[in-house]
Amino acid sequence: MWRSMNFSLPLKTFTRGVIPNGTRHRVKTLWQERKHSAWFARTRMTLGCPELILHFGIGPGDDLLCTVVLHELKKRGGHTLWMMSKHPDLFEDNPDVDQVVPIDPRFREYAWVMGKKWQLLEYARIDFERDQSESPKRHILAELCGRIGIKGTIAMRPYFYLKEEEREKADWAKETIAIQSCGLGGQMQMRNKQWYPERFQAVVDGLKSQFKFVQLGAASDPALEGVVDLRGKTRIRETAALLSHCRLYLGNIGFLMHLARAVECPSVIVFGGREAPWQSGYTCNTNLYSAEPCAPCWLWNKCDHGRICMDRITAAEVISAVEKMTGKTRSHLVVDEFTL
């Protein structure tokens, strides 16, 4: 049975949209009963009032995808857009978001009391018992924008804004290849997204005479040999600055894939078969996908087929893809579009 990721709310009937005036009095009463009035007044005085508060999840990848929604809303005349997030660094200097606030349920009530909107974003429901996400019928960026009511043509790319001094500090990374050996150090672990660390090592071994590699990711990711090891040593903005200079990013589906796209870094992504490139990838990248009969399955960790979709992607195939991508002149990446 599919279960939504919506939070359990005191007035969960009104998790989306402006609540009726008759109910607002009840919310205000609850607010006073919970002794939130001082917090409410302080927030009103220091931050003002949003037109809309958005919240997705707790992972940086989810929040980065929300920059597409914020951009398209702002382009269509959206005013005073707030983002609820654990990762404010993602939104620094972003002109599409007016305020980044912590993940705090009081902000939901704040929006209701002010007669404004709070909206939880999602692109697919999750069945935790089956260890599986619902397979999206369109690209996840289109799904996010469509569910909030955006119409017309959208640009299918996330946004990240670097300062010039941040870029200058990462200048040494020019012409390097950024690589991540595993993505299990993230907030939501999905083994079916992971290629094999030993095959990433084989790619490094096959190309290290031509390229310098920089390993990014969590400190717990399997270490690769023959690379500049920056696992767990860079913050989000430092990682983005490095990727903005790198010749290429090589890795699995995940946060760094989306971050690389946001800073115009081309990528070779090992998709396997859990999800298809048309559901979550970018056509400017080389996406290595296994079109098995069971794919795309959107299973998280279970697999009845021995992860054949990942097993069939060889190190030689990845090496070839990297060589072809690096043989092209680096330029602004093609922006995919989708009409809602």
Query: Whole-number average pLDDT?
Result: 90
Helix content: 25-40%
CATH architecture of the largest domain: 3-Layer(aba) Sandwich
CATH topology of the largest domain: Rossmann fold
Query: What is the CATH C-level name of the largest domain?
Result: Alpha Beta
Q: Spell out the CATH superfamily of the largest domain.
A: Glycogen Phosphorylase B
Poorly predicted segments: 1-17
**Total number of β-strand segments?**
14
Quaternary class: single chain
Q: The biggest beta sheet, please? A: 6 strands, parallel
From the spread of the alpha carbons, the general shape counts as globular
Strand content: 5-15%
Structurally, the number of domains stands at 2
**Biggest β-sheet: strands ordered side by side in the sheet:** 10-9-8-11-12-13
Number of helices: 12
**What is the chain-wise order of helices and strands?**
HHEHEEHEEEHEHEHEEHEHEHEHHE
What is the CA-CA span between the terminal residues?
A: 28 Å
What Rg do the Cα atoms give? 21 Å
Structural class from helices and strands?
alpha/beta
